């Protein structure tokens, strides 16, 4: 009884502390984004005449400009109408096919012609890299099929919350015994499957062949509909962003060299948001197409060149060290838990700050601009910006802790 009282008191204290922390974090986050938006509008308005890649837009007025300086986004955006026509025809035909043998013939034939059609109209030959990844996946799955599976189905079902609900998770589909499907025709069907041919996401051969027999049931129709509506909202957000903020045009034009350290940070932060949203829209468009056709590809957007890849690995070390220490040392006192949480937030903010700088190198200034960047940020004007970056990412890390805690309480 005494322990229960202590536990209740502890939970009340944690909830009180969490609410107090949110009352500080949320106003800071709002103020940060208000400042970023105002400053972004100002620098875009002041320098738009010197930027490359701006074209007449369709939002607000005929005189508005749209940032289409990114070649990949410009290509995808301009071909979206024809992609959607092919998308619709393929999905309608795919969902009218019910029998397995007929379904295979349909996917084999229509995927081949659709893939060739899309390549001709989008002029996208980069899909060859994705085909190579699929070839590797087929080889691995075929090899392990000959070795015999060591997958414990019963133990997995007991641990997996998706399988417990009566659905088939991606891992179950991937580990199914489908030795009779390792044929040359199925192999070609897998390589040229139209919805995932141009830009992925990648799905393993076993999971693909399994879902040709038994369509995915993780996403109900309303889930797929909601997924599509979220994609449309994200597309409108991207259009709004490229019409009023010209982040990528600054990077392409090299105009960042004329900006102050604060404005370089804002442009770099904006470019990273643009890049993330671009990949989000492209990958989820094709994943939505695949879901409508009954094939679930794994979601790979919650994560994602060579000059800064090793730096990226190195920058995760502080967060990994603190997290490992926190896992091995379970603090019991309120102060101990507070200290561990603050150390994790501190390490997370260091990681994000370093990744921000690395991504500035990757997407904005290039490897040749590293010395210039460091000289700018280590000046009297640049040091406060560096400190503000660190504080902002510290607040962002703390907010992510709050979101994570809320999800755990909900579960």
Automatic annotation (TrEMBL):
InterPro entries: MB_O-acyltransferase (IPR051085), MBOAT_fam (IPR004299). It is a multi-pass membrane protein. The chain crosses the membrane at residues 20-37, 80-98, 104-121, 184-209, 229-250, 262-285, 305-322, 343-365, 385-401. GO terms for biological process: triglyceride biosynthetic process. Pfam families: MBOAT (PF03062). GO terms for molecular function: acyltransferase activity. It comes from the Eukaryota. Keywords: Membrane, Transmembrane, Transmembrane helix. GO terms for cellular component: endoplasmic reticulum; membrane. It is found in: Membrane. Coiled coil: none annotated. This is Uncharacterized protein.
């Amino acid at each position: 009884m005494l322990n229960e009282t202590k536990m209740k008191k502890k939970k009340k204290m944690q909830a009180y502390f969490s609410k107090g922390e949110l009352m500080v974090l949320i106003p800071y986050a709002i103020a940060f984004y208000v400042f970023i938006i105002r400053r972004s509008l100002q620098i875009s308005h002041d320098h738009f005449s010197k930027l490359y890649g701006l074209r007449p837009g369709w939002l607000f007025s005929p005189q508005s400009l749209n940032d289409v300086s990114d070649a990949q986004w410009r290509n995808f955006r301009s071909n979206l109408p024809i992609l959607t026509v092919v998308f619709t025809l393929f999905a309608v035909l795919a969902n009218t096919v019910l029998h397995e043998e007929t379904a295979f013939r349909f996917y084999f034939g229509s995927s081949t012609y659709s893939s060739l059609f899309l390549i001709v109209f989008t002029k996208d030959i980069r899909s060859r890299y994705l085909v190579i990844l699929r070839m590797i996946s087929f080889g691995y799955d075929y090899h392990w099929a000959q070795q015999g599976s060591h997958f414990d189905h019963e133990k997995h079902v007991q641990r997996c919350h998706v399988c417990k609900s009566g659905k088939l998770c991606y891992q179950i589909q991937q580990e199914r015994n489908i030795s009779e499907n390792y044929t040359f025709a199925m192999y070609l069907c897998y390589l040229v499957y139209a919805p995932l041919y141009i830009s992925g996401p990648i799905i393993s051969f076993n999971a693909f062949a399994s879902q040709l027999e038994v369509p995915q049931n993780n996403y109900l129709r309303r889930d797929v509909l909601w997924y599509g509506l979220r994609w449309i909202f994200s597309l409108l957000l991207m259009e709004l962003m490229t019409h009023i903020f010209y982040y990528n045009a600054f990077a392409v034009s090299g105009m960042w060299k004329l900006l102050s350290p604060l404005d370089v940070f804002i442009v770099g932060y904006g470019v990273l948001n643009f890049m993330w949203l671009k990949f989000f829209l492209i990958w989820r468009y094709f994943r939505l197409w695949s879901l409508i056709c009954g094939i679930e590809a794994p979601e790979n957007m919650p994560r994602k060149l060579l000059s800064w890849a090793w730096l990226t690995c190195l920058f995760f070390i502080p967060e990994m060290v603190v997290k490992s220490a926190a896992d091995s040392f379970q603090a019991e006192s309120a102060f101990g838990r507070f200290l561990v949480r603050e150390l994790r937030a501190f390490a997370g903010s260091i990681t994000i700050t370093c990744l921000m700088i690395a991504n500035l190198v990757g997407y904005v200034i290039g490897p040749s601009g590293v010395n210039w960047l460091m000289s700018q940020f280590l000046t009297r004007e640049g040091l406060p910006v560096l400190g503000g970056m660190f504080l902002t990412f510290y607040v962002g890390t703390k907010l992510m802790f709050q979101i994570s805690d809320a999800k755990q309480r909900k579960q």
